[in-house]
Design goal:
heterodimer, A: alpha/beta, six-stranded mixed beta sheet, 10 strands, 37% helix, globular, B: mainly alpha, ABC transporter involved in vitamin B12 uptake, BtuC, two-stranded antiparallel ribbon, 14 helices
Amino acid sequence: MAFFEGSKMTAGYGDGPNIINSCTIKVDRGEIVAILGPNGAGKSTAMKTLLGLLNLKSGKVLIDGNDITNLSPQDRVKKGISFVPQSRNVFAELTVKENLEIGAFLRSDNIEKILNEIYDLFPILSEKQSQIVGELSGGQRQQVALGRALMIKPSVLMLDEPTAGVSPIVMDELFEHIIKVKKTNVAIIMVEQNAKQALSVSDRGYVLVTGENKFEGSGKDLLNDPEVRRSFLGA
Amino acid sequence: MEFINAIILLLNYTIIPALTYGSQLALGAIFVTLVYGILRFANFATGDMMSFGTMIAVLLTFYFQSLGISFGFLPTALLTIPFAIIGMIFYMLFIDKFVFSYYRIKKSPPVQLAMVSVGVMFVTQAIIRIIIGPFDRRFFDGEKFILKATEFKEMTGLNEGLTIKSTQAITILVTIVLVSIMFWFLNRTKTGTSMRAYSDNEDLALLSGIDPKRVVLITWIIAGVLATIGGVLYGLDKSYRPFVYFNNMLPIFAAAIVGGIGNPFGAFLGGYVIAFAEILVTYAYKKFFTYILPDFLEPDSLIQLLSTDYKFAVSFSILVIVLLFRPSGIFKGKTL
Protein backbone atom coordinates (compact mmCIF):
# COMPACT_ATOMS: atom_id res chain seq x y z
CA MET A 1 0.00 0.00 0.00
CA ALA A 2 1.62 3.20 -1.18
CA PHE A 3 1.46 6.45 0.80
CA PHE A 4 -0.42 8.34 -1.91
CA GLU A 5 -2.25 6.57 -4.65
CA GLY A 6 -4.82 7.11 -7.36
CA SER A 7 -6.15 3.72 -8.25
CA LYS A 8 -8.06 2.80 -11.41
CA MET A 9 -8.93 6.45 -12.09
CA THR A 10 -11.27 7.17 -14.98
CA ALA A 11 -12.04 10.82 -15.73
CA GLY A 12 -12.74 13.33 -18.50
CA TYR A 13 -13.73 16.96 -18.91
CA GLY A 14 -17.45 17.60 -18.48
CA ASP A 15 -19.56 15.13 -20.45
CA GLY A 16 -16.78 14.58 -22.99
CA PRO A 17 -14.92 11.33 -23.59
CA ASN A 18 -12.72 9.84 -20.89
CA ILE A 19 -9.18 11.18 -21.04
CA ILE A 20 -7.75 8.70 -18.58
CA ASN A 21 -8.96 5.15 -18.32
CA SER A 22 -8.43 3.02 -15.27
CA CYS A 23 -5.10 4.71 -14.68
CA THR A 24 -3.16 3.90 -11.52
CA ILE A 25 -0.39 6.02 -10.02
CA LYS A 26 1.32 5.33 -6.71
CA VAL A 27 4.01 7.16 -4.81
CA ASP A 28 5.71 6.70 -1.46
CA ARG A 29 7.37 9.27 0.75
CA GLY A 30 10.92 10.04 -0.22
CA GLU A 31 10.33 8.89 -3.78
CA ILE A 32 10.18 10.70 -7.11
CA VAL A 33 7.72 9.34 -9.63
CA ALA A 34 7.66 10.63 -13.20
CA ILE A 35 4.60 10.48 -15.42
CA LEU A 36 5.62 10.36 -19.06
CA GLY A 37 3.94 9.81 -22.36
CA PRO A 38 3.25 11.33 -25.74
CA ASN A 39 1.16 14.44 -26.21
CA GLY A 40 -2.47 13.90 -25.32
CA ALA A 41 -1.71 10.82 -23.27
CA GLY A 42 -3.49 12.28 -20.25
CA LYS A 43 -0.44 13.04 -18.11
CA SER A 44 -1.66 16.42 -16.88
CA THR A 45 -5.20 15.11 -16.59
CA ALA A 46 -4.02 12.31 -14.33
CA MET A 47 -2.31 14.88 -12.15
CA LYS A 48 -5.33 17.19 -12.08
CA THR A 49 -7.46 14.24 -11.06
CA LEU A 50 -5.11 13.40 -8.21
CA LEU A 51 -5.42 17.03 -7.11
CA GLY A 52 -9.22 17.05 -7.37
CA LEU A 53 -9.48 19.65 -10.12
CA LEU A 54 -11.38 17.03 -12.09
CA ASN A 55 -14.08 14.70 -10.80
CA LEU A 56 -13.55 10.99 -11.03
CA LYS A 57 -16.07 8.84 -12.90
CA SER A 58 -14.70 5.79 -11.20
CA GLY A 59 -11.70 4.90 -9.12
CA LYS A 60 -10.29 6.24 -5.86
CA VAL A 61 -7.66 8.57 -4.50
CA LEU A 62 -6.12 7.60 -1.19
CA ILE A 63 -3.59 9.31 1.05
CA ASP A 64 -2.09 7.37 3.94
CA GLY A 65 -5.01 4.96 3.70
CA ASN A 66 -7.70 7.69 3.86
CA ASP A 67 -10.11 8.05 0.97
CA ILE A 68 -10.01 11.66 -0.30
CA THR A 69 -11.83 11.03 -3.61
CA ASN A 70 -14.60 13.48 -2.77
CA LEU A 71 -12.52 16.32 -1.32
CA SER A 72 -12.11 19.66 -3.13
CA PRO A 73 -8.59 20.77 -4.12
CA GLN A 74 -8.53 23.22 -1.18
CA ASP A 75 -9.36 20.45 1.28
CA ARG A 76 -6.68 18.24 -0.28
CA VAL A 77 -4.16 21.03 0.30
CA LYS A 78 -5.08 20.82 3.98
CA LYS A 79 -4.30 17.09 3.82
CA GLY A 80 -0.77 17.96 2.74
CA ILE A 81 -0.98 17.70 -1.04
CA SER A 82 0.75 20.61 -2.73
CA PHE A 83 0.74 21.42 -6.43
CA VAL A 84 2.95 23.52 -8.69
CA PRO A 85 1.11 24.29 -11.93
CA GLN A 86 2.98 24.49 -15.22
CA SER A 87 2.25 28.15 -15.93
CA ARG A 88 1.34 31.11 -13.73
CA ASN A 89 2.73 29.26 -10.72
CA VAL A 90 3.88 32.33 -8.77
CA PHE A 91 2.31 35.58 -7.62
CA ALA A 92 4.23 37.78 -10.03
CA GLU A 93 3.26 41.07 -8.36
CA LEU A 94 4.15 40.01 -4.83
CA THR A 95 7.60 39.81 -3.30
CA VAL A 96 9.43 36.51 -2.86
CA LYS A 97 8.73 36.56 0.86
CA GLU A 98 5.04 37.33 0.36
CA ASN A 99 4.80 34.43 -2.11
CA LEU A 100 6.19 32.11 0.54
CA GLU A 101 3.90 33.55 3.20
CA ILE A 102 0.87 32.92 0.99
CA GLY A 103 2.12 29.36 0.54
CA ALA A 104 1.81 29.01 4.30
CA PHE A 105 -1.62 30.65 4.35
CA LEU A 106 -3.27 27.63 5.94
CA ARG A 107 -0.70 27.38 8.72
CA SER A 108 -1.62 29.20 11.87
CA ASP A 109 1.65 28.58 13.72
CA ASN A 110 4.78 30.68 13.46
CA ILE A 111 6.18 30.31 9.97
CA GLU A 112 9.66 31.70 10.69
CA LYS A 113 11.15 28.23 11.13
CA ILE A 114 9.80 26.80 7.91
CA LEU A 115 10.68 30.02 6.10
CA ASN A 116 14.30 29.50 7.13
CA GLU A 117 14.18 25.88 5.97
CA ILE A 118 13.03 27.04 2.54
CA TYR A 119 15.80 29.65 2.47
CA ASP A 120 18.31 26.90 3.28
CA LEU A 121 16.96 24.82 0.43
CA PHE A 122 16.91 27.74 -2.03
CA PRO A 123 19.59 30.21 -0.90
CA ILE A 124 18.83 32.59 -3.79
CA LEU A 125 15.34 33.21 -2.37
CA SER A 126 16.78 34.44 0.89
CA GLU A 127 18.94 36.89 -1.03
CA LYS A 128 16.01 38.20 -3.09
CA GLN A 129 13.30 37.98 -0.46
CA SER A 130 11.99 41.52 -0.85
CA GLN A 131 12.15 41.58 -4.64
CA ILE A 132 9.01 41.40 -6.80
CA VAL A 133 8.82 37.91 -8.31
CA GLY A 134 7.89 39.28 -11.74
CA GLU A 135 11.40 40.73 -11.95
CA LEU A 136 13.19 37.40 -11.37
CA SER A 137 14.61 35.05 -14.01
CA GLY A 138 12.74 31.95 -15.13
CA GLY A 139 14.81 29.55 -13.03
CA GLN A 140 14.47 31.72 -9.94
CA ARG A 141 10.71 31.91 -10.47
CA GLN A 142 10.51 28.12 -10.57
CA GLN A 143 12.35 28.06 -7.24
CA VAL A 144 9.81 30.51 -5.82
CA ALA A 145 7.04 28.25 -7.13
CA LEU A 146 8.63 25.21 -5.47
CA GLY A 147 9.22 27.16 -2.27
CA ARG A 148 5.63 28.37 -2.16
CA ALA A 149 4.35 24.81 -2.55
CA LEU A 150 6.68 23.55 0.19
CA MET A 151 5.57 26.13 2.76
CA ILE A 152 2.69 23.98 4.00
CA LYS A 153 5.19 21.18 4.63
CA PRO A 154 3.40 18.89 2.21
CA SER A 155 3.66 15.12 2.30
CA VAL A 156 2.92 14.98 -1.43
CA LEU A 157 4.27 17.44 -3.97
CA MET A 158 2.98 17.42 -7.53
CA LEU A 159 4.89 19.22 -10.26
CA ASP A 160 3.43 19.87 -13.69
CA GLU A 161 6.37 20.19 -16.09
CA PRO A 162 8.72 21.97 -13.69
CA THR A 163 11.40 22.42 -16.35
CA ALA A 164 9.21 23.66 -19.19
CA GLY A 165 10.79 26.65 -20.88
CA VAL A 166 14.03 26.84 -18.88
CA SER A 167 17.55 26.43 -20.24
CA PRO A 168 19.37 23.05 -19.90
CA ILE A 169 21.68 24.41 -17.18
CA VAL A 170 18.76 25.68 -15.14
CA MET A 171 16.98 22.41 -15.73
CA ASP A 172 19.82 20.43 -14.12
CA GLU A 173 19.81 22.86 -11.21
CA LEU A 174 16.06 22.48 -10.76
CA PHE A 175 16.29 18.70 -10.78
CA GLU A 176 18.97 18.94 -8.11
CA HIS A 177 16.58 21.03 -6.03
CA ILE A 178 13.80 18.50 -6.57
CA ILE A 179 16.11 15.72 -5.34
CA LYS A 180 16.92 17.83 -2.27
CA VAL A 181 13.18 18.18 -1.61
CA LYS A 182 12.75 14.42 -1.96
CA LYS A 183 15.34 13.89 0.76
CA THR A 184 13.10 15.79 3.20
CA ASN A 185 10.76 12.77 3.01
CA VAL A 186 8.26 14.21 0.55
CA ALA A 187 6.49 12.11 -2.06
CA ILE A 188 6.98 13.74 -5.45
CA ILE A 189 4.98 13.18 -8.61
CA MET A 190 6.03 15.05 -11.73
CA VAL A 191 4.80 15.27 -15.27
CA GLU A 192 7.70 15.84 -17.64
CA GLN A 193 8.38 16.38 -21.33
CA ASN A 194 12.14 16.00 -20.91
CA ALA A 195 11.70 12.27 -20.47
CA LYS A 196 15.34 11.20 -20.33
CA GLN A 197 16.40 13.71 -17.74
CA ALA A 198 13.24 13.11 -15.72
CA LEU A 199 13.78 9.37 -15.65
CA SER A 200 17.41 9.77 -14.65
CA VAL A 201 16.37 11.56 -11.44
CA SER A 202 13.23 9.50 -10.78
CA ASP A 203 12.93 6.41 -8.69
CA ARG A 204 10.06 5.12 -10.74
CA GLY A 205 8.16 6.17 -13.82
CA TYR A 206 4.82 5.60 -15.47
CA VAL A 207 4.36 5.81 -19.21
CA LEU A 208 0.78 6.64 -20.17
CA VAL A 209 -0.65 6.07 -23.62
CA THR A 210 -4.21 7.18 -24.44
CA GLY A 211 -4.96 7.48 -20.75
CA GLU A 212 -3.84 4.02 -19.75
CA ASN A 213 -0.78 2.70 -17.95
CA LYS A 214 1.43 1.32 -20.69
CA PHE A 215 4.76 0.78 -18.96
CA GLU A 216 5.91 1.22 -15.43
CA GLY A 217 9.04 0.49 -13.54
CA SER A 218 12.15 2.01 -12.04
CA GLY A 219 13.73 4.95 -13.82
CA LYS A 220 16.70 2.84 -14.90
CA ASP A 221 14.57 0.01 -16.25
CA LEU A 222 12.44 2.35 -18.31
CA LEU A 223 15.51 4.11 -19.66
CA ASN A 224 16.92 0.76 -20.76
CA ASP A 225 13.69 -0.76 -22.02
CA PRO A 226 14.10 -0.93 -25.83
CA GLU A 227 10.41 -0.43 -26.55
CA VAL A 228 10.15 2.63 -24.30
CA ARG A 229 13.31 4.02 -25.85
CA ARG A 230 12.01 3.55 -29.34
CA SER A 231 8.57 5.03 -28.75
CA PHE A 232 9.24 7.85 -26.28
CA LEU A 233 12.86 8.62 -25.84
CA GLY A 234 13.65 8.94 -29.51
CA ALA A 235 16.74 6.71 -29.50
CA MET B 1 3.70 91.92 -0.20
CA GLU B 2 2.08 91.69 -3.62
CA PHE B 3 3.76 88.36 -4.13
CA ILE B 4 2.59 86.94 -0.80
CA ASN B 5 -0.93 88.14 -1.58
CA ALA B 6 -0.78 86.27 -4.87
CA ILE B 7 0.34 83.08 -3.15
CA ILE B 8 -2.39 83.32 -0.51
CA LEU B 9 -4.91 83.90 -3.27
CA LEU B 10 -3.86 80.72 -5.05
CA LEU B 11 -3.75 78.80 -1.80
CA ASN B 12 -7.24 79.92 -0.88
CA TYR B 13 -8.97 79.40 -4.21
CA THR B 14 -7.07 76.53 -5.79
CA ILE B 15 -4.70 74.54 -3.62
CA ILE B 16 -6.81 73.98 -0.52
CA PRO B 17 -10.02 73.27 -2.48
CA ALA B 18 -8.11 70.95 -4.83
CA LEU B 19 -6.58 69.02 -1.92
CA THR B 20 -10.07 68.62 -0.47
CA TYR B 21 -11.74 67.65 -3.74
CA GLY B 22 -8.78 65.41 -4.57
CA SER B 23 -9.16 63.53 -1.28
CA GLN B 24 -12.82 62.92 -2.00
CA LEU B 25 -12.02 61.66 -5.51
CA ALA B 26 -9.13 59.56 -4.18
CA LEU B 27 -11.43 57.61 -1.86
CA GLY B 28 -13.82 56.91 -4.74
CA ALA B 29 -10.96 55.98 -7.05
CA ILE B 30 -9.50 53.50 -4.56
CA PHE B 31 -12.98 51.97 -4.31
CA VAL B 32 -13.10 51.58 -8.12
CA THR B 33 -9.59 50.15 -8.29
CA LEU B 34 -10.19 47.70 -5.44
CA VAL B 35 -13.36 46.30 -6.99
CA TYR B 36 -11.63 46.15 -10.37
CA GLY B 37 -8.53 44.42 -9.00
CA ILE B 38 -10.25 41.82 -6.86
CA LEU B 39 -13.75 41.33 -8.23
CA ARG B 40 -12.52 42.04 -11.76
CA PHE B 41 -15.07 44.45 -13.14
CA ALA B 42 -15.49 48.19 -13.63
CA ASN B 43 -18.19 49.09 -11.15
CA PHE B 44 -20.45 51.68 -12.78
CA ALA B 45 -22.54 51.81 -9.64
CA THR B 46 -19.64 53.48 -7.78
CA GLY B 47 -21.12 56.99 -7.75
CA ASP B 48 -24.53 55.81 -6.69
CA MET B 49 -23.16 53.48 -4.04
CA MET B 50 -21.36 56.50 -2.57
CA SER B 51 -24.64 58.35 -2.81
CA PHE B 52 -26.47 55.52 -1.04
CA GLY B 53 -24.06 55.55 1.89
CA THR B 54 -24.30 59.32 2.12
CA MET B 55 -28.08 59.14 2.05
CA ILE B 56 -28.06 56.92 5.15
CA ALA B 57 -25.74 59.40 6.86
CA VAL B 58 -27.99 62.35 5.88
CA LEU B 59 -31.14 60.67 7.18
CA LEU B 60 -29.39 59.68 10.42
CA THR B 61 -28.04 63.21 10.81
CA PHE B 62 -31.57 64.62 10.59
CA TYR B 63 -32.75 61.99 13.07
CA PHE B 64 -29.90 62.73 15.50
CA GLN B 65 -30.61 66.47 15.20
CA SER B 66 -34.29 65.85 16.00
CA LEU B 67 -33.18 63.98 19.11
CA GLY B 68 -30.92 66.86 20.02
CA ILE B 69 -27.72 64.87 19.68
CA SER B 70 -24.80 66.87 18.35
CA PHE B 71 -21.05 66.50 18.06
CA GLY B 72 -20.05 69.88 19.50
CA PHE B 73 -18.22 72.02 16.99
CA LEU B 74 -17.87 69.06 14.61
CA PRO B 75 -20.63 68.09 12.17
CA THR B 76 -23.19 65.62 13.51
CA ALA B 77 -22.77 63.63 10.29
CA LEU B 78 -19.39 62.36 11.54
CA LEU B 79 -21.24 60.58 14.37
CA THR B 80 -23.51 58.87 11.89
CA ILE B 81 -20.70 57.55 9.66
CA PRO B 82 -20.21 54.23 11.51
CA PHE B 83 -23.92 53.44 11.23
CA ALA B 84 -24.00 54.55 7.60
CA ILE B 85 -21.02 52.31 6.85
CA ILE B 86 -22.80 49.33 8.37
CA GLY B 87 -25.92 50.08 6.32
CA MET B 88 -23.84 50.53 3.19
CA ILE B 89 -21.96 47.25 3.70
CA PHE B 90 -25.25 45.40 4.17
CA TYR B 91 -26.60 46.93 0.98
CA MET B 92 -23.46 45.97 -0.95
CA LEU B 93 -23.44 42.41 0.40
CA PHE B 94 -27.14 42.11 -0.43
CA ILE B 95 -26.48 43.24 -4.02
CA ASP B 96 -23.47 40.95 -4.22
CA LYS B 97 -25.38 37.94 -3.00
CA PHE B 98 -28.36 38.39 -5.30
CA VAL B 99 -26.71 39.94 -8.35
CA PHE B 100 -22.92 39.86 -8.68
CA SER B 101 -22.21 36.45 -7.13
CA TYR B 102 -24.32 34.70 -9.79
CA TYR B 103 -22.11 36.09 -12.57
CA ARG B 104 -18.92 35.57 -10.57
CA ILE B 105 -19.65 31.85 -10.03
CA LYS B 106 -20.54 31.51 -13.72
CA LYS B 107 -17.18 33.16 -14.46
CA SER B 108 -18.83 35.71 -16.73
CA PRO B 109 -16.50 38.01 -18.67
CA PRO B 110 -15.74 41.37 -16.97
CA VAL B 111 -17.75 43.28 -19.59
CA GLN B 112 -20.85 41.39 -18.59
CA LEU B 113 -20.29 42.20 -14.92
CA ALA B 114 -19.74 45.84 -15.83
CA MET B 115 -23.11 45.86 -17.64
CA VAL B 116 -24.70 44.22 -14.62
CA SER B 117 -23.26 47.01 -12.48
CA VAL B 118 -25.00 49.53 -14.77
CA GLY B 119 -28.23 47.80 -13.83
CA VAL B 120 -27.31 48.01 -10.15
CA MET B 121 -26.58 51.70 -10.70
CA PHE B 122 -30.11 52.37 -12.06
CA VAL B 123 -31.76 50.39 -9.29
CA THR B 124 -29.69 52.16 -6.62
CA GLN B 125 -30.56 55.54 -8.14
CA ALA B 126 -34.25 54.65 -8.07
CA ILE B 127 -34.09 53.48 -4.45
CA ILE B 128 -32.37 56.71 -3.45
CA ARG B 129 -35.01 58.80 -5.24
CA ILE B 130 -37.81 56.89 -3.57
CA ILE B 131 -36.28 57.25 -0.10
CA ILE B 132 -34.84 60.76 -0.05
CA GLY B 133 -35.81 62.36 -3.38
CA PRO B 134 -33.64 64.10 -5.94
CA PHE B 135 -33.32 67.44 -4.11
CA ASP B 136 -30.31 69.25 -2.79
CA ARG B 137 -29.86 68.75 0.94
CA ARG B 138 -27.48 70.42 3.33
CA PHE B 139 -26.69 68.39 6.39
CA PHE B 140 -23.66 70.26 7.62
CA ASP B 141 -23.79 71.67 11.14
CA GLY B 142 -21.27 72.67 13.76
CA GLU B 143 -18.50 75.22 13.34
CA LYS B 144 -18.18 76.22 9.71
CA PHE B 145 -14.72 77.77 9.66
CA ILE B 146 -11.43 76.98 11.31
CA LEU B 147 -9.89 80.14 9.92
CA LYS B 148 -11.99 83.01 8.61
CA ALA B 149 -10.80 85.39 5.91
CA THR B 150 -11.27 88.45 8.12
CA GLU B 151 -9.36 86.88 11.01
CA PHE B 152 -6.53 85.99 8.68
CA LYS B 153 -6.40 89.53 7.30
CA GLU B 154 -6.27 91.01 10.80
CA MET B 155 -3.57 88.56 11.82
CA THR B 156 -1.30 89.16 8.87
CA GLY B 157 -2.29 92.57 7.53
CA LEU B 158 -2.53 91.15 4.01
CA ASN B 159 -5.17 92.15 1.47
CA GLU B 160 -6.08 88.59 0.67
CA GLY B 161 -7.80 86.40 3.22
CA LEU B 162 -7.22 82.71 3.74
CA THR B 163 -10.22 80.65 4.76
CA ILE B 164 -10.02 77.10 5.94
CA LYS B 165 -13.41 75.49 6.20
CA SER B 166 -13.73 72.82 8.85
CA THR B 167 -15.01 70.41 6.17
CA GLN B 168 -11.77 70.90 4.26
CA ALA B 169 -9.63 70.11 7.27
CA ILE B 170 -11.83 67.14 8.20
CA THR B 171 -11.73 65.77 4.65
CA ILE B 172 -7.97 65.92 4.35
CA LEU B 173 -7.33 64.54 7.84
CA VAL B 174 -9.83 61.70 7.55
CA THR B 175 -8.50 60.75 4.12
CA ILE B 176 -4.90 60.58 5.32
CA VAL B 177 -5.85 58.42 8.30
CA LEU B 178 -8.17 56.14 6.31
CA VAL B 179 -5.81 55.65 3.40
CA SER B 180 -2.87 54.95 5.75
CA ILE B 181 -4.85 52.29 7.58
CA MET B 182 -5.92 50.77 4.28
CA PHE B 183 -2.40 50.56 2.87
CA TRP B 184 -1.13 49.15 6.12
CA PHE B 185 -3.86 46.51 5.95
CA LEU B 186 -3.19 45.61 2.31
CA ASN B 187 0.60 45.50 2.58
CA ARG B 188 1.35 44.38 6.11
CA THR B 189 -1.34 41.97 7.24
CA LYS B 190 -1.84 38.35 6.26
CA THR B 191 -5.40 38.98 5.09
CA GLY B 192 -4.29 41.97 3.02
CA THR B 193 -1.51 39.96 1.39
CA SER B 194 -3.97 37.19 0.61
CA MET B 195 -6.23 39.73 -1.10
CA ARG B 196 -3.37 40.98 -3.26
CA ALA B 197 -2.45 37.37 -4.06
CA TYR B 198 -6.05 36.64 -5.05
CA SER B 199 -6.05 39.68 -7.30
CA ASP B 200 -2.73 38.69 -8.87
CA ASN B 201 -3.37 35.00 -9.57
CA GLU B 202 -6.76 33.65 -8.59
CA ASP B 203 -6.09 29.98 -9.40
CA LEU B 204 -2.88 29.81 -7.44
CA ALA B 205 -4.54 31.65 -4.53
CA LEU B 206 -7.21 28.97 -4.43
CA LEU B 207 -4.53 26.25 -4.51
CA SER B 208 -2.83 27.94 -1.56
CA GLY B 209 -6.02 27.61 0.45
CA ILE B 210 -7.23 31.22 0.29
CA ASP B 211 -11.00 31.32 0.73
CA PRO B 212 -12.48 33.33 -2.16
CA LYS B 213 -15.70 34.05 -0.26
CA ARG B 214 -13.74 35.71 2.52
CA VAL B 215 -11.73 37.81 0.05
CA VAL B 216 -14.95 39.01 -1.62
CA LEU B 217 -16.53 39.78 1.75
CA ILE B 218 -13.56 41.85 2.92
CA THR B 219 -13.42 43.66 -0.41
CA TRP B 220 -17.02 44.78 -0.02
CA ILE B 221 -16.40 45.80 3.58
CA ILE B 222 -13.47 48.03 2.56
CA ALA B 223 -15.48 49.28 -0.42
CA GLY B 224 -18.36 50.15 1.91
CA VAL B 225 -16.08 52.11 4.22
CA LEU B 226 -14.47 54.01 1.34
CA ALA B 227 -17.76 54.72 -0.45
CA THR B 228 -19.54 55.98 2.64
CA ILE B 229 -16.73 58.11 4.01
CA GLY B 230 -15.87 59.52 0.58
CA GLY B 231 -19.53 60.30 -0.09
CA VAL B 232 -20.19 61.91 3.29
CA LEU B 233 -17.05 64.06 3.09
CA TYR B 234 -18.08 65.28 -0.35
CA GLY B 235 -21.62 65.94 0.83
CA LEU B 236 -20.44 67.88 3.89
CA ASP B 237 -18.08 69.98 1.82
CA LYS B 238 -20.56 70.77 -0.98
CA SER B 239 -24.06 69.46 -0.44
CA TYR B 240 -25.87 66.18 -0.90
CA ARG B 241 -27.59 65.90 -4.25
CA PRO B 242 -27.89 62.37 -5.70
CA PHE B 243 -27.39 63.44 -9.33
CA VAL B 244 -24.07 65.12 -8.53
CA TYR B 245 -22.76 61.82 -7.16
CA PHE B 246 -23.64 60.13 -10.40
CA ASN B 247 -21.75 62.87 -12.29
CA ASN B 248 -18.70 62.46 -10.07
CA MET B 249 -18.18 59.04 -11.50
CA LEU B 250 -16.32 60.51 -14.47
CA PRO B 251 -13.56 62.20 -12.44
CA ILE B 252 -13.43 59.16 -10.14
CA PHE B 253 -12.91 56.74 -13.02
CA ALA B 254 -10.45 59.16 -14.59
CA ALA B 255 -8.48 59.18 -11.31
CA ALA B 256 -8.48 55.40 -11.10
CA ILE B 257 -7.29 55.05 -14.70
CA VAL B 258 -4.68 57.81 -14.44
CA GLY B 259 -3.25 55.96 -11.46
CA GLY B 260 -3.22 52.66 -13.35
CA ILE B 261 -6.39 50.68 -12.74
CA GLY B 262 -5.87 48.03 -10.10
CA ASN B 263 -3.18 50.08 -8.36
CA PRO B 264 -4.58 51.58 -5.13
CA PHE B 265 -1.71 53.96 -4.50
CA GLY B 266 -1.94 55.20 -8.08
CA ALA B 267 -5.67 55.76 -7.63
CA PHE B 268 -4.95 57.77 -4.49
CA LEU B 269 -2.51 60.05 -6.33
CA GLY B 270 -4.75 60.06 -9.40
CA GLY B 271 -7.51 61.67 -7.35
CA TYR B 272 -5.27 64.67 -6.67
CA VAL B 273 -4.04 64.84 -10.29
CA ILE B 274 -7.62 65.11 -11.54
CA ALA B 275 -8.68 67.55 -8.82
CA PHE B 276 -5.72 69.88 -9.37
CA ALA B 277 -6.18 69.74 -13.14
CA GLU B 278 -9.89 70.54 -12.90
CA ILE B 279 -9.43 73.42 -10.52
CA LEU B 280 -6.28 74.95 -12.01
CA VAL B 281 -7.74 74.92 -15.52
CA THR B 282 -11.06 76.43 -14.51
CA TYR B 283 -9.73 79.09 -12.10
CA ALA B 284 -9.84 82.74 -13.20
CA TYR B 285 -6.31 84.11 -12.75
CA LYS B 286 -7.10 87.81 -13.28
CA LYS B 287 -6.55 88.84 -9.69
CA PHE B 288 -3.44 86.70 -9.40
CA PHE B 289 -1.81 88.42 -12.35
CA THR B 290 -2.90 91.82 -11.08
CA TYR B 291 -0.79 91.13 -8.01
CA ILE B 292 2.33 89.81 -9.67
CA LEU B 293 2.50 91.82 -12.89
CA PRO B 294 3.42 95.51 -13.08
CA ASP B 295 0.47 97.90 -13.47
CA PHE B 296 0.75 98.46 -17.20
CA LEU B 297 0.51 94.70 -17.87
CA GLU B 298 -2.66 94.18 -15.86
CA PRO B 299 -5.02 91.83 -17.67
CA ASP B 300 -8.46 92.95 -18.82
CA SER B 301 -10.03 89.53 -19.20
CA LEU B 302 -10.64 86.88 -16.53
CA ILE B 303 -7.67 84.75 -17.69
CA GLN B 304 -9.74 81.63 -17.26
CA LEU B 305 -8.75 78.74 -19.51
CA LEU B 306 -12.11 77.03 -19.29
CA SER B 307 -15.45 77.90 -17.75
CA THR B 308 -16.25 75.88 -14.63
CA ASP B 309 -19.23 74.42 -16.50
CA TYR B 310 -16.72 72.46 -18.51
CA LYS B 311 -14.80 71.01 -15.59
CA PHE B 312 -15.81 67.48 -16.56
CA ALA B 313 -14.21 68.07 -19.93
CA VAL B 314 -10.91 68.35 -18.07
CA SER B 315 -11.16 64.92 -16.48
CA PHE B 316 -12.41 63.49 -19.73
CA SER B 317 -9.47 64.96 -21.67
CA ILE B 318 -6.99 63.61 -19.12
CA LEU B 319 -8.66 60.23 -19.36
CA VAL B 320 -8.35 60.19 -23.15
CA ILE B 321 -4.74 61.41 -23.12
CA VAL B 322 -3.69 58.83 -20.53
CA LEU B 323 -5.46 56.03 -22.36
CA LEU B 324 -3.75 57.03 -25.59
CA PHE B 325 -0.21 57.46 -24.29
CA ARG B 326 0.11 55.61 -20.96
CA PRO B 327 -2.77 53.11 -20.85
CA SER B 328 -1.33 51.40 -17.79
CA GLY B 329 -1.42 54.63 -15.79
CA ILE B 330 1.13 57.34 -15.14
CA PHE B 331 2.37 56.00 -11.82
CA LYS B 332 4.70 53.07 -11.56
CA GLY B 333 4.02 50.64 -8.82
CA LYS B 334 2.45 47.43 -7.75
CA THR B 335 -1.05 46.79 -8.84
CA LEU B 336 -3.23 45.36 -6.16
